[in-house]
Structure prediction request, 178 residues.
Amino acid sequence: MQEVNAMEKWFNVGKIVNTHGVKGEVKVVSTTDFPEERYQKGNTLYLFQNKGQNPIELVIKSHRNHKSFDLLTFEGFENINEVEKFKEGILKVQEDQLQELGEGEYYLHEIVGCKVVTTGGEDLGTVKEILSPGANDVWVVKGERGKEYLIPYIEDIVISVDIEEQLITIEPMEGLLS
Prediction:
């Protein structure tokens, strides 16, 4: 097992919600956009259970889908008794395990915290969270005095995203900011 650096950035990929069967399989509610890549046989995930406790390094032995869950087994964990203690644990990866994204695609953690301005130079505030209600994401921007703006992530509105500068420029359509 390798030593885990506490200063590393960690990203959630799923939560173990239960065991499945008696052969060491666990049910995972996945939070990754890349389950097929993330849960590939041989990949390493890190299980975080309690605050202050070092994460457990787990190597994926198998992955399959069942209903709305991802079912995983890990090398060295052959039965239900060995994985029972993993319930409620969060599976994470380190920053260097993140996939490269295509043009115009971003990780949530890259967008949250960015400053949002209009093409006219108006400072709207900072992205506080991202909602995924349907066809496209909606960025929740909190401005001065607590005013919130809901900005749909669509090409006509989001003109540019500069992750390095943490700056997003939008062209607000009529009624968007009222």
